[in-house]
Structure formats: C-alpha cells, structure tokens
Specification:
This protein has 825 residues and is mainly β. It is 7% helix and 57% strand. 36% of the residues are buried.
Length: 825
C-alpha cells in the first residue's frame, strides 16, 4: 500500500501517517495549524527519513520519544539539523575546495569538485560563513536550509576578494586561526607546515611569534622567556607532566587523535591555573560518530592507527588509537639523524661495543555518550611510554642503562544543558607520571652496584563549572576546582651490602580553587573579559588571589587594539639534577613548593597590542612585560658552574612580537619577528646585579611560504635567531692535581647565530573518484642546507683521578629527511 500526500495540511495528514507507521503524534494544535506538507507514504520510506522530510518542510522539530510516539515542538537553538548545498559562481559553475565555516562550533568543511558540501549535525539558527578567493564572503543562517533538498548558493566576485573577518580567522595557515589572542589549531583541517609531513601539535605552536625552542625539541616550548615546565598542557582536561617522545624530539600527542588545540600566550582565562606561562589545551573528537571513520599510516620513525566507531546510533561512540615506533627493530635514515642529535655527548655515542634498544609508544581511548539532548558524557584516557635499554660489555664487566618515562591519565566529563542560557559541567581527572633510571654494574655476571633515579607524580582533581548567558552581550562563568598532587623523587646508590640515599623527597599538596569570569562582547566593536581566581594551598597555608583582564576594541573596521593584565602562580617546578648524571638524559626532576627551599612561583604579565587587516594583508604587533618571582638557582639551572649553593631570585622579561602575512590566490607567505630580553637577579650571585637568563634569545625571525596546486601542497620555512646566552671560561688552571676553571660573568657571551631552512610536500589522492577512502604521501627535509648550528655550550671537569676539562657542545640536527604515507577512511 502506498499513497502520496500532496500539499495537505499537516493536521489532516497526521492520521494517515499514524495509521501507516502505527505511531502516535503529540503536539499543540496551534503549532501546526498552517503547516502543509507533500510527501510519499510507502514501505520504502523509513520513519526516520519521513521525519527528516517533515522537519524540513514545516520547520518544526520531530522527536521520536518512544517506540510508538513522536513529539512535535518548535525548533530551538540547541537542536541540530542536517544541511547540504551546492556553491556556484555567477556563471553557475561549481566552486570546489573552498571552506564552509560553521561559527557556532568553529568547525569547517570543504566543497568537493561539484561545489557540494554537507553537515549532518549543525546547530539550528546558527551562522555559516562561506568564503573563496576572488568572491565576496557569504553569511547564511542554518534556518535558510530548511524545506529545501540542497541549497543552491551563488557567490559574486569581489575586488577585495575576501572580507577582513576571514583574514583574521586564518592565522598561520588554513586550520590555524586566531581570535581574541587565542590561537586555535584545527588538526583535521590544517595545511602542511615547514619541515613536517604530519601536523605535530607542539611543533605547530613553535611557528608562532614569541615561542622559542633553543634545543630543537618538540616539547621545549619557551613561551616569552619562560621555561617549558611553566606551561600548562592539557589533554582532554588531564594535566600532563611529560610531553615528548624520543627525549623531546617528537610530540607525545598523536595528531590524528586530537581534533583541536587552543594555545594562549596572554589573556589567560580564570579557569586555567597552576602554571605561569603558556596554556596548550588539546581536545579530541567530542561528537558522536555517525559512521566508522579513521586512518592509519607510517613515517620513518613510527606507525599508528586511529578509528572512531559508533556503538549506539546517536548515543554512544568510541575512538581508539595506538602508535609505536619501530626504532628497536629498524634504524632508518631519519632515526639515525635524530639519534645523533639526542645521544651526542653521551656514552651511547662514544662507545663502540654496545647494544641500544629504544622505542616509544602511546595509546588513547575516548568514549562519548549522549544519553539525552541535554546531557553529554566523555570518558578519556591517555598513555605514553619511552623505553631505553643500553648495554656495554667487556670480558669481565657489563654496564646497563635502563631509562623509562611513562605517562598515564584519565578524565570523565559531564556537561548538562539546563536551558538555552544555563550550562553546568562536572569533571574529574587522574594523571600519573614516572621517571625511572637505573645504571647497573655487573662483574662476571654478579650484581655489583645500582645507581637509581626515580621521580613519580600522582595528581588527581575535580571541577564543577557553570556558565550563564545573562543577555545577548553578557556572560558569566565560574566554578570550584580541587587538586591533590603527590610528588616523590629519590637518588639512591645500592650494592648487595648497603644502600646509600643521596637525596630524596616525598610530599603532597592539596589546592582549593574558586574562579569567576565575566565577559562582554559586542561583535566588531568591543570585547572585555574580567576574571578572578583564588587559590588556597592547604599544606602551605597560603592564599593567592589572581586577577585577570583582557579587552579588545575595534578602532575602525580594519584596525583594533587589545590589552591584558594577569597575575598567576605555580606550585610545581622542575630542577636540574646533577647527582646521577651518568647518561645525562631526562635530568629534569619535578618537585612541589614548600615553605623552605622551593617557594611558590608567581608571575605578573601585562600586554598591549594592535592588529590591522585589509586586502589580504594582516599585521599583528604586541608588546609585553613579565615579572617572575620565586625562582631558584636549582630551577633556573645556575647551581653549576657558578657555585654549589642555593639562591632565590626573580626574572624580568620584556619583549615585542610582530607578525605580517599576505595571501595570494594559491600562495601565502608570513614572517614574524620577536624580541625578548630576559634578566635574572639572585641574592648573592653576580654582586646582586641582573644578568641574562639561560634561555635568552634576543632576536628571532621566522619566515614561511605555502603554495597549493591541485592536490599538492608545498611549504618552505626559514628560521633565524641570535645565539643563546652562555657562560664562558676566562682561564683554565692546570698547575695542580685538579683542574680549576675560572668563569666569565654569568651568561655574558652568546652562541653563534642560528639559522635553518625546512621543506615539506604532501600529495592527496583517491584511487577511485567515488571512493570515500583517500590517501596521502608526504616528504620533508629539516635543515635543507645542512647548517651545523651550536645549540649549547657548557664547561666542566671530570670527577675521576684523570681530571680532565670537558667542553660539552651540543649541535643541531643535520639534514634530516622523512617520508610518510597515510590512508583515511
């Protein structure tokens, strides 16, 4: 049996539909009085597809509330609808490969060769921005896509080609945007970056002005003169204490699992705490999967696989991933170059009769549940491990270095929408970090001595947050956070007959936090965020109040200014250990603040900036001043070679970041310049006079180019900076039995100028045009002209009977090629 309902009032059609599908509708009569529909009714049209068609034609929301019931109500802003469209030019020709930006959830999609795009889950009554080079930007509302099969959207040519708002959104490259000084990286849509065949999270951040990396590592983010341990790096709300693979050369976060990254240098929200420098907030997919998606691939270091599987339609989905290096099985040319950089000046590089087994691995699992329209639950986990097993032997004695770093973390997050103005969040996290190093000496197969270094962290916390929309322009958010942090470290030498504890520490800290933030936003005119954060450190019996302020004002359509001020504190820090340094790898140890040796680190930061955009040009400039109190010679790395005593001090940093970008049709180029001046002052050192910080690099220039043609992407990047500060020696006294070094003033010299050129290329393709499976081949070259850069220089003497002077120079990576292949489904 089949029939066709032709332009019939919905109230008259409902009895026919109820009888055919054996269902009952629930509705208010006045809601459907004037609604008319036209649709076939037959066994080939499922109830789900019928409801989707009725929703389009009536602009009402049809929800299946039981096995035989359907409720009809008005559409609300929190509801999601399915939309599609074809984008054509004035001659009705399709416009392929252009971005369609969904403003409500800050996601993108790209049109295919027919100009077609779709989104099966977009918020009703939200804004869509469509932009293409050479055309005027189109701003649409999702409401306009109802009662049509697929919208036909025509773009008209423009002299300015793209409105200024779009230029501001795209920062470094496609997929990397900036809004109110927050740099957002959409890892599902990011273009190829210089020297990378894959979108490494932390290395992408290093391309931004104000971020330096003196040692060429991925995890070494020195944000505006601060050290890496002063950055807050979150994975789905889980605090992380170790972010590197291969001793920091690679990021420990799988970029194909992460969906987006928000990076803050200033104007930090009051909800973020426990660190005084940058904030890197990494989030994985948070939408229920409609179908099985994922990808798998390999490069010259590791292989990985990621998949996202729907479990219950529109209710539950699971994303899982695994990645492992094969460096313990196969030494590729890429691994060889990275090894030379990492193991230089260690015994691994200097000993011939040796075995070196090293690998790393990481896993992720994310469970997403949506039991109702108003509730969403996310359960996330992360695990990563680096394992080094190095052995050296002679006829009677064998030596072994076992070094393991391990990170494990979990988070559960429940979001509840009470109404269109009120949301609440409850979450909890647990993270564990372990560093375990053993230097084992055996004689004729019998254990002789074990030198051990251990550092462990157990950190768990909870949060209750609330967000309330007061009115169109006014919002308020606040909440309570709690954390319990237990950190241990120990340096132990043991033999079969005795155990000697060289140093150890075991303490915990409970912190109670309350935060409140008010925001006012009038688009294209004025934005202000005023926040306050109160921290109570229980075991230290200290309360710190942290005010935060960020404002942005549009002076004209193309020009705006901004300013921020903030006060922040940090109760965890890293010290550079020098007790057990046989291998000289992973020698940073985490510790907690106390009322004796390590004070709470406090920081003030003030910024003022301006940006201008017009006709494909974008210029951004910002100056800042930062003062850090509570640093020590242990945390700042000055205990050697200056003296062997403990000192406290402060650091004052001021600088300027400048960024200039120009877009062309298929080519874009951007250049940045940063000036940083860091001065440290310690009681009892350098006559109490200030001196440059250990990581001070005054002038940095980064210049990048990107070009796209058909399915090829090319990227070229050049980085230049002045040499890092270091302490030179003025005299070496070898007249006695022990060599005595006399040092110049602290950090009064600079290493030679550093510069490097990197290149990348990727090619995307499909074997069959209609196939949903696509492939990517990538190639990259780091340090294209093989520049030998000096990264660090230290002088020391050996503690053996054969007392010798050692010049520990660390050089950069040589020319380093890499290849990758990936399949997406």
């Amino acid at each position: 049996m089949s029939t066709y309902i032709n332009n019939k009032l919905l109230q008259d059609a409902i009895p026919i539909i109820e009888q055919f599908y054996s269902i009952k509708f629930s509705y208010v009569d006045a809601l459907i009085n004037d609604k008319k529909i036209s649709t076939p009714i037959n066994s080939q049209l499922s109830l789900k597809n019928l409801i989707a068609e009725l929703q389009k034609q009536t602009k009402l929301y049809f929800k299946i509330t039981g096995p035989n019931f359907v409720t009809i109500r008005p559409l609300q802003k929190k509801d999601t609808i399915s939309i599609c469209g074809y984008i054509l030019d004035e001659d009705k020709k399709p416009i392929p490969n252009i971005r369609v930006f969904f403003k409500a959830n800050r996601t993108n999609t790209i049109t295919n060769r027919k100009g077609y795009f779709e989104n099966t889950e977009v918020l009703y009554n939200s804004v869509i921005l469509i932009s293409a080079p050479g055309f005027r930007q189109k701003i649409l509302n999702t409401k306009s896509f109802l009662n049509k099969k697929c919208n036909i959207i025509r773009l008209t040519h423009s002299q300015e080609e793209i409105l200024d708002e779009v230029f501001i959104q795209e920062y470094l490259a496609k997929g990397i945007t900036q809004n109110k000084k927050v740099i957002n990286i959409d890892l599902t849509n990011v273009e190829v970056l210089p020297g990378r065949t894959e979108p490494d999270i932390l290395q992408s951040i290093q391309l931004t002005p104000g971020v330096n990396n003196p040692f060429e590592t991925a995890s070494g983010l020195h944000v505006r003169g601060s050290s890496p341990n002063q950055n807050l790096i979150l994975w789905n709300g889980i605090k992380t204490y170790h972010q590197g693979h291969f001793f920091g050369m690679l990021s420990a976060f799988n970029p194909y699992v992460a969906k987006e990254v928000n990076f803050y240098k200033s104007g930090i929200s009051a909800k973020y705490g426990d660190r005084i420098a940058g904030v890197v907030d990494i989030k994985s997919e948070n939408k229920i999967a409609k179908k099985i998606t994922g990808g798998a691939g390999f490069n010259m270091i590791n292989a990985d696989i990621v998949t996202h599987i729907p479990i219950i339609q529109d209710k539950i989905s699971l994303q899982v991933s695994g990645r492992r290096s094969y460096t313990d099985l196969l030494g590729t040319f890429t691994y060889k170059q990275l090894s030379e950089r990492v193991f230089q000046n260690t015994k691994i590089a200097s000993i011939n009769n040796k075995e070196n087994n090293f690998f790393y691995t990481d896993y992720n699992a994310n469970l997403i549940l949506k039991p109702s329209d108003n509730n969403k639950i996310e359960i996330n986990s992360i695990y990563s491990k680096n394992d080094l097993d190095f052995k050296q032997r002679n006829p009677t004695t064998s030596f072994g270095d076992d070094l393991i770093t391990e990170t494990e973390g979990y988070n559960i997050n429940w979001n509840h929408t009470h109404n269109k103005n009120l949301d609440t969040k409850i979450s909890g996290y647990y993270t564990k970090y372990l560093l375990n190093y053993q230097f084992i000496t055996e004689n004729m197969g019998l254990l002789k001595e074990v030198e051990t270094k251990k550092n462990s962290i157990k950190d768990f916390g909870t949060e209750f947050g609330i967000h309330y929309k007061i009115s169109k322009h006014h919002n308020i958010a606040g909440g309570y956070q709690f954390s319990n942090n237990n950190i241990r470290y120990a340096f132990v030498t043991s033999t079969p007959n005795y155990e000697l504890i060289l140093d150890q520490d075991d303490r915990f800290l409970n912190t109670h936090i309350g935060y409140l933030e008010y925001t006012f936003e009038k688009p294209n005119n004025f934005y202000a965020s005023v926040g306050i954060r109160a921290n109570y450190y229980s075991e230290l019996n200290q309360t710190l109040i942290e005010p935060r302020l960020f404002i942005e004002k549009h002076i004209t359509k193309n020009w705006k200014i901004n300013a921020s001020t903030e006060y922040r504190s940090q109760a965890t820090s890293q010290i550079k250990e020098s007790i057990i340094s046989d291998l000289s790898l992973e020698n940073q140890i985490w510790t907690l603040a106390n009322n004796d040796v390590f004070p709470i680190i406090k920081s003030y930061q003030h910024t003022f900036g301006s940006s201008f955009s017009k006709k494909k040009w974008y210029l951004d400039i910002e100056g800042y001043y930062k003062q850090i109190e509570g640093i020590t010679t242990l945390t700042a790395g000055f205990i050697n070679p200056i003296d062997n005593t403990y000192h406290t001090g402060e650091s004052m940093i001021f600088g300027i970041d400048l960024f200039l970008k120009k877009n062309f049709k298929n080519y874009k180029t951007w250049i940045s310049y940063s000036y940083i001046n860091t001065n440290n002052t310690f009681d009892g050192i350098n006559n109490n006079e200030s001196f440059p910080g250990n990581w001070n690099i005054e002038h940095t220039v980064k210049w990048s180019q990107f070009y796209k043609i058909n399915n090829f992407q090319f990227s070229l990047g050049w980085i230049w900076h002045t040499g890092k500060a270091f302490t030179n020696i003025s005299r070496v006294d070898e007249s006695g039995e022990i060599i005595i070094l006399e040092f110049d003033k602290i950090n009064s010299d600079n290493l030679p100028v550093y510069h490097r050129l990197d290149f990348s290329a990727i090619y995307d393709f499909k074997i069959k045009n209609a196939s949903k499976i696509r492939y990517r081949i990538g190639a990259s070259l780091l340090n294209l002209y093989n520049r030998k850069n000096l990264l660090n220089r230290e002088y020391r003497t050996t503690n053996t009977l054969n007392n010798e002077l050692i010049n520990s120079d660390i050089f950069s990576l040589g020319i380093t090629p890499n290849l990758s292949f990936r399949v997406f489904w």
